[in-house]
Amino acid sequence: MGRTKEHRLAMRRNLVASLIQHETISTTIEKAKEVKPFAEKLITLAKKGTLAARRRAISELGNRDMVNDEDGQAVKTGTVIGKLFSELGPRYLDRAGGYTRIIRLSMRRLGDNGQLVLLQLVGADEGTKKHDKPKKSSRKKPEHTPEVVETAETSEKPENAEQS
């Protein structure tokens, strides 16, 4: 990646923290491929949910605050580790891996023409519905049954009919 070890680690931490906060980020394919295993290991730690796992995640990632801008004021909405252990860990409890996906974009980055991708966290319901297809009914339909249609005959004359 053409960076020093310290720069690579800081970049990896920042990208994963942004991924956890926003659940989708746009980056280059090379950075996404380097960050994906680190993000998945942190989510696996969050699935354990123990104090030791939380401390290990803080030591590897840092405990960055999540701040939103509301009416021109910076409002703290929590921490990255808090979201990781309270939302993402429980979301993926029944999933054995593959918490992230890389989607290639058609755009290229200005300057170096790098391939841009979306790095996303897989939704909780999207992974299970991927293979669910509507099942076809194996039951045969009954033979054609004639339907009885009753026709109502009216004995009234239309209103626009000529009256004598």
Count of DSSP strands: 5
The proportion of strand residues reads 15-25%
* Shape category: extended
The helix content is 25-40%
Q: From the alpha-carbon coordinates, what is the Rg to the nearest angstrom?
A: 29 Å
**Which whole number gives the mean pLDDT?**
83
Question: What is the CATH topology classification name of the domain at 5-23 and 30-99?
Answer: 50s Ribosomal Protein L17, Chain: A
Q: What's the architecture of the domain at 5-23 and 30-99 in CATH terms?
A: Alpha-Beta Complex
CATH H-tier superfamily of the domain at 5-23 and 30-99: Ribosomal protein L17
Instruction: Assign the structural class, choosing from mainly alpha, mainly beta, alpha/beta, alpha+beta, or little secondary structure.
Output: alpha+beta
Count helical runs. Answer: 5
Order of helices and strands: HEHHEEHEEH
Largest sheet: 3 strands, antiparallel
Spatial sequence of strands, sheet with the most strands: 1-5-4
What does this structure look like?
Helix content is 40%, strand content 21%. The chain is α+β, with helices and mostly antiparallel strands and 164 residues long. Strands 1-5-4 form a 3-stranded antiparallel β-sheet. Strands 2-3 form a two-stranded antiparallel ribbon. A hairpin with a 6-residue loop joins strand 4 (100-108) and strand 5 (115-121). The relative contact order is 0.14.
